[in-house]
Amino acid sequence: MEPVKIGIVGCGNISDVYFNGGKTFEVIEVAACADLIMERAVEKAEKHGVPKACTVEELLEDPEIRIVVNLTIPNAHASVGLAALEAGKCVYNEKPLTITREDGQKMLAVAKEQGLLVGGAPDTFLGGGHQTCRKLIDDGWIGEPVAATAFMMCHGHEHWHPDPAFYYQRGGGPMFDMGPYYLTALVNMFGPVKRVCASARITFPERTITSEPKFGTTITVETPTHVAGTMDFANGAIATVVMSFDVWGHHVPCIEVHGTEGTMCVPDPNAFGGAIRLGRAGGKEWGQMPLSHGYDEQSRGIGVADMAYALLSGRPHRANGDLTYHVLDVMHAFLDSSARGTHVRIKSKCKRPAPLPMGLRHGLLDE
After folding, report:
1. Measured in whole angstroms, how far is the alpha carbon of residue 88 from the centre of its chain?
2. Angle 2-3-8 (CA atoms, 0-180°, nearest 5)?
3. pTM of the full structure
4. What letter would DSSP give residue 202?
């Protein structure tokens, strides 16, 4: 099978794992990379053996590239993604899909008109940890899902990220930065969300960067940094969610799922593997479950590879546009609910992504 050639736009902090993913999966090949700062594109091309470093315009004009992997900052996800679609390329955006619902809807509409695919991060739910959790739920190990808790709490990214200001602008904050991992993991396990109720606040109106090279720079916070609420799923389950950049420390798990026959402790949704602990009804001890699937190591790019299979075979891809837009819609609903002081019903819909087959050889996603 001839690999699908992809082009990476945005050679910043996250790009290395995507370049490495391009070497892991046989179905894709990184053919070019681009960045507004040409030196960064050249540096990544040399580091990862990519044949061409170029401008964004040159990458979009390259007839060999079929998928554009858009790793720009959130504010550019819509403009770069739409430009890629208009150039006849499928596009895979880093999270979130776009900042606004309107831009997300426009991307999906243009892709449908052009017969192209849209997808986006996160793809961690395709890792061995979360695919195992999905199988345990589907196989009835905890009975009918009743509830879940999801907590992402830290004190922000200004102490480690080299250029953290965008995390505190519109389209950032803990919900839009880390929420996609948690909400996508929950949708993978439970299916689509039908209703949200939430509260949100900005705790610190200004943040001071303590990382280099912008140490001492002050950031004005424009988006809520502590968001708490509940999600009602179409299958009847209810999830309690807290996303915060205002917490110094905690002892709560990332995700727990509670069913009629037991409880499952789910690994960090920002990782591909991790320990899965299960407590069954009537049992006194928690047991650790073996992983049923591979790709439990750093496998970012697995969603791009799955899109390439979809492009070649016509089957649906898992980290698809409907899923990523639904998560975007739900994240907005948290902030809308807080602002309006009411429940928000979710208008978008998506299907649970198909589980990955078991026993795949490393580097493959189809049997």
Report:
1. 24
2. 155
3. 0.96
4. -
Q: Are 3 and 29 in contact (CB under 8 A)?
A: yes
Domain spans in the chain, listed from the N-terminal domain onward: 4-120, 125-289
Q: What is the pLDDT of residue 282?
A: 87
Residue 113: count other Cβ atoms within 10 Å of its Cβ: 9
Q: What does the alpha-carbon distance between residue 105 and residue 122 come to, in Å, rounded to a whole number?
A: 19
CATH topology for 4-120 is Rossmann fold (3.40.50)
**Cis bond upstream, residue 96 (ω within 30):** yes
Q: How far apart are CA 207 and CA 40, in angstroms?
A: 27
How many residues can be counted in the chain?
Answer: 367
Q: How far apart are CA 87 and CA 110, in angstroms?
A: 11
d(CA 341, CA 19): 44
Whether residue 283 has pLDDT greater than 90: no
In single-letter form, the type of residue at position 23 comes to K
Give CATH for domain 125-289: 3.30.360.10
Contact 273, 127 (CB under 8 A): yes
Q: How far is residue 35's CA from residue 56's CA, in Å, rounded to a whole number?
A: 7
Q: Quick one: tokens of 78?
A: 């819509």
Provide the b/e sequence for 12-50 (b: ≥16 CB within 10 Å). Answer: beebeebbebbebbebbbbbbbbbeeeebbbebbeebeb
Summarised one tens digit per residue, pLDDT across range 207-245 is 999 999 999 999 999 999 999 999 999 999 999 999 999
Q: Count the Cβ atoms, other than its own, within 10 Å of residue 230.
A: 16
196 within 8 A of 333, measured Cβ to Cβ = yes
Cα separation, 156 vs 210, whole angstroms: 11
For residue 131, pLDDT over 80 is answered with yes
Beta partners for 232?
Answer: 195, 238
